[in-house]
Specification:
heterodimer, A: 376 residues, alpha/beta, six-stranded parallel β-sheet, B: 327 residues, five-stranded mixed β-sheet, 21% strand
């Protein structure tokens, strides 16, 4: 426990680690967002949290078997991602970092698009404008400026503050505790604040930037990072899917209505490694990991659902769906083929560029000299 | 009958910007001090009065933020033109330009083109303090995904800025700052050629000089002096540094057998280095002498009292001409 995750910091929590639901008076405005949810919504949240975890475990196994070059685990962050993902409206645009597999699930991104990147087939390649889920960003903080520019454009388009949920939109950008150190994040806060842009900055504080603890990344709790720029913020219990949903939904609504930028810090924990290349046993205590495993977001929500009277049949059905997902993912991963050589050249420029064309022509001829041993 | 006007390079860029902003309200102009002031070189003077905050605005002094938000605006369907106040201030934006702007079209497999123009006043010769006189174009010409151009005269400036704005690829637009006030005729009706073709400015038979941007006027002076001494030199204004119009250079070298490449930028790993290597690959048997690079020294841009020693002048080019012809 360090200064940054001290319980003294006011934190929005609607579902406590024991699975008890309650709305403290000061968070009543968020409680209203839960009041309008149906049982079907709760089941959808759980189903997708379980799906996200299953996907994660399967992808890690595929990496260990040499089928993926790398995996980026997000176990422990299911509530932060599935909750906030569902808090994002159907016109809103999402700018993820590289660990937002759960947010991708909530917006119907084909999970194979993510595995393709990690297998080395491409660098993304889905349609960001159509899916509203922009490409994963590897350079920390880079995507937050793009999100800010996008939000500036939304406002220029007059798509803010019309009270028209069908046409108004806002932008959300995800990033981690480590990324907050990047200048691009500070510049994003500033540009968004001076332009009063419709954007929510969603920071998943999973407490570890590879091997650097959050205490080495910030002196002040992260939800206050935007204050000096004019971006107010709030901390939520990132392992509480209901808080994550309600707070995101409320501030996306506000942004859409013209309230300007806002920051949400979801305090959570990265149960796994930074990536499959990392060894967290070298820099953190097992007791810390055990402490957070006991606060598992899925187990917490399961307890809540069972108390709501959700039967074992539902959980069995979720398990079955998980088995099916694993089998599908494995099969689809094995079926991925090496991309054609032309993919390296054909998207570099929109309009023809002679240097690229010459080199493509050259490699085709060169490859042809190998006959049947040539690449595709 | 074409419609010609006499404009400085700065006014020509201004006129080209105005034309694009009139034609398409999605064309935005932003950067540091570009609105009411018109930029520190007044290139955008009057545009704010005409188009207002919706199309031209000042940003915080944060170059990464300027380019990063331009990327987001381009994703939203805008065609941003950004101004980096001086060459030496582009480096805070280097990450966004190289890792994001240049790669977005490729990363998205064509779903996300980047019609962004980054305008950069560049080069020395104005007696400025540190970081105000640099020529960083080679960094960007080295980067796949960017187009890099530099006009040398008002007519090209007027048309090339418009061609850059119409491009769906990101364009680094290097403006020769010491020539901003150089005047010349601008044909308002008809573009001279596409942005990516080099122009033979002066025909000759004994030697070719390839140059671009602010060095073009210096090289032309050298060509004229050489002509008075009976030497016939062909002068090529490259105009575009990515792509480089190699066929025009190679054809010229096949005719003359000799090549000098001149620019203000430091000589090592420069545009001149790339041109020399390419000519060696493609016109080796036509060369009568080694290709000679005439550029700035491989030192940090010096204090202003020494810049006339750093910057190649007509004599430095003529010294290289003599060496080449004597080889």
């Amino acid at each position: 426990m360090n200064a940054n995750n001290s319980p003294a910091v006011p934190t929005v929590q609607l579902l406590n680690p024991e699975g008890d639901y309650g709305v403290p008076k000061e968070w009543a405005t968020y409680g209203k967002y839960i009041d309008r949810l149906t049982e079907a919504d709760f089941l959808k949240f759980y189903r997708d949290m379980a799906r996200m975890r299953r996907f994660d475990r399967e992808a890690e196994a595929l990496q260990r078997q040499g089928q993926l070059g790398l995996w980026i685990p997000a176990i422990g962050q299911e509530a932060a991602q599935i909750g906030s993902g569902y808090g994002v409206g159907h016109n809103d645009h999402i700018f993820p970092s590289y660990r937002e597999h759960g947010v991708a699930i909530t917006h119907n991104i084909d999970l194979m698009s993510i595995l393709k990147m990690l297998r080395g087939v491409n660098h993304g390649g889905w349609n960001p404008e159509e899916t509203r889920f922009h490409l994963y960003a590897i350079v920390l903080g880079s995507q937050v400026l793009h999100a800010t520019g996008y939000a500036m454009g939304v406002k220029m388009d007059g798509k803010v503050g019309n009270g028209d949920i069908e046409n108004d939109l806002a932008v959300i950008s995800y990033f981690g505790d480590g990324a907050t150190a990047e200048g691009d994040i500070s510049e994003s806060f500033l540009f968004a604040a001076v332009n009063n842009s419709p954007i929510v900055f969603f920071c998943q504080n999973n407490q570890w930037a590879i091997s650097s603890s959050v205490a080495s990344q910030t002196k002040v709790p992260l939800y206050r990072r935007g204050e000096g720029f004019g971006v107010p913020g709030i901390r939520i219990d990132g392992n509480d899917v209901l808080a994550s949903y309600a707070v995101t939904a409320k501030h996306m609504d506000d942004a859409r209505e013209g309230a300007g930028p806002f920051m949400i810090e979801a305090l959570t924990y990265r149960i796994g490694a930074h990536t499959t290349s990392d060894d967290p046993t070298k820099y953190r205590d097992a007791s810390e990991v055990e402490y957070w495993k006991a606060r598992d977001p899925l187990a917490r929500f399961e307890t809540f659902l069972r108390r709501q009277g959700i039967s074992q049949d539902f959980f069995d059905e979720v398990d079955e769906a998980g088995e099916k997902l694993s089998a599908e993912i494995r099969e689809a991963t094995f079926a991925l083929t090496t991309p054609p050589v032309e993919n390296m050249f054909k998207y570099v420029y929109s309009d023809p560029h002679p240097r690229i064309q010459e080199q493509f022509e050259w490699i085709k001829k060169y490859e042809a000299t190998f006959g049947e041993d040539a690449h595709s | 009958m074409s419609n010609f006007v006499e404009l400085s390079i700065a006014k020509a860029i201004n006129a080209g910007l105005r034309k694009c902003m009139q034609d398409n309200p999605k064309v935005l102009m932003f950067g540091e001090d570009v609105a009411q002031l018109g930029g520190v070189f007044r290139v955008t003077e009057g545009l704010h009065a005409e188009f207002g905050d919706k199309q031209i605005f000042n940003t915080p002094i944060a170059e990464s933020g300027i380019v990063g938000t331009a990327i987001g605006l381009a994703m939203r369907g805008y065609r941003p033109v950004t101004e980096i106040q001086f060459d030496g201030f582009i480096f805070p934006a280097f990450d966004q330009i190289v890792t994001q702007l240049a790669k977005m079209q490729n990363r998205s497999e064509g779903f996300t083109p980047m019609p962004v123009v980054v305008r950069v006043p560049y080069g020395g010769g104005i007696g400025a303090v540190e970081h105000h006189s640099e020529s960083p174009e080679a960094y960007f010409a080295h980067t796949a995904g960017l187009r890099v151009v530099s006009p040398s005269n008002p007519n090209d400036a007027y048309w090339m800025i418009q061609q850059a704005i119409l491009s769906d690829d990101p364009v680094m637009f290097f403006e020769p700052k010491r020539r901003y006030w150089q005047k010349g005729p601008v044909n308002l009706d008809e573009p001279p050629m596409d942005s990516y073709s080099a122009r033979v400015l002066h025909e000759g038979s004994q030697l070719t000089i390839a140059t671009y941007g602010p060095m073009t006027a210096v090289a032309l002076q050298a060509v004229e002096i050489a002509a008075s001494e009976g030497k016939s030199i062909e002068l090529i204004d490259l105009r575009s540094l990515s792509p480089i119009d190699f066929p025009t250079i190679i054809n010229s070298v096949k005719k003359t057998g000799r090549l000098i490449v001149a620019h203000e930028a430091s000589t090592g790993f420069s545009v001149g280095s790339e041109v020399a290597a390419r000519v060696a690959e493609e016109a080796f048997y036509h060369l009568e002498a080694p290709v000679i690079r005439v550029g700035g020294f491989d030192v940090p841009y010096p204090a202003a009292k020494l810049e006339e020693i750093f910057l190649p002048d007509a004599d430095r080019i003529l010294e290289a001409v003599d060496r080449s012809l004597a080889y």
